[in-house]
Amino acid sequence: MNRLVHLGNVLVDLVMTVPQLPPRGGDVLATSSRMMAGGGFNVMVAAARQGMHVAHGGLHGTGPLGDLVRKQLDGAGIELLQAVRTDQDTGYDVALVDAEGERTFVTSFGVEATLGRSDLARITIKPGDFVYVSGYSLVQRSSGPALAEWMRQLDAGVPVVVDPGPLVTDIAPDVLAATLRRAHWWSCNLREATLLTGREDPAEAAVELVGRGCSGVVVRTGPDGCVLATDVRNPVEVLGFRVSAVDTNGAGDAHVGAFIACLARGLEPAEAARYANVAAALAVTKPGPATAPTATEIDDFLTRRAE
């Protein structure tokens, strides 16, 4: 069975729903709040709900936040590849979700941000594995260079999927360039693609990223779907599905997790992207970040749309 080896950060999300963001120096009362595993957890759950075996190769700490992360990873059936670190707890972020479903983050990293060469050396990649790398790991002074070196040493046939995240411009140039060259798939939203390329058109941005060395690029365009490029000439627009958004937190994670799982079971990239568009659309109809649908829910949605 194909396995997803996830090397991104898992931390705790403190999610607060607010009518609007507070002004500088001001305050606003949240209408709801909750704590749950977040970050890379959402990608892993999305892939697991598509039936893929998932293993987490990142770090998790000692303390209440690390305990919460491990409990939820175990509940999702995700294998842990690293022992508990005893010198520090897991980090957290505050996610503010406004009345339009948009989310804004403030992040405080913990032990998950300290992944190093010795940690990566404990991970064995097996035939059929997919490797996922996050920009939140690449931006760190220790884990960024370590991951870039580790990816260079992987067998060329191992598919590496990279989601650079909102901190993409903070990744060291040499780490970014090495990662772009090694990525089989680069999945980002339009804002991130524009920051990288200076191009606001998703097709143009996708083509430029392919030209920088990626085998394939997915530029997510929200409810419009995504643009898929595997060469510099023929980007493909894969249309999305319009729904009533409740909470957009985790939509991109649902997309990339479903995309990987669909590739792993043999779907062509355009069809995998279509399924991923459904996954992202269904995810935003529920509150919370880890709301990716199951394979059955995606199939049912597509059946109803075809009627």
What does this structure look like?
The chain is globular. The longest helix is centred in the C-terminal third of the chain and has 15 residues, at 269-283. Helix 5 (143-153) runs parallel beside helix 6 (173-182), helix 7 crosses helix 8 (202-211) and helix 9 (251-264) packs antiparallel against helix 10. By secondary structure, it is α/β, with parallel strands linked by helices. It has a single domain (3-11, 38-91, 111-306), classed as UDP-N-acetylmuramoyl-L-alanine:D-glutamate ligase (3-Layer(aba) Sandwich), CATH 3.40.1190. The chain has a 9-stranded mixed sheet with strand order 5-4-1-8-9-10-11-12-13, sandwiched between helices. A 4-stranded mixed sheet has the order 3-2-6-7. The protein is built from 11 helices and 13 strands. The chain has helices spanning 40-48, 64-75, 117-121, 135-138, 143-153, 173-182, 190-197, 202-211, 251-264, 269-283, 295-306, and strands spanning 3-6, 10-17, 32-39, 53-56, 79-80, 92-97, 103-108, 130-134, 160-163, 185-189, 216-220, 225-229, 236-239.
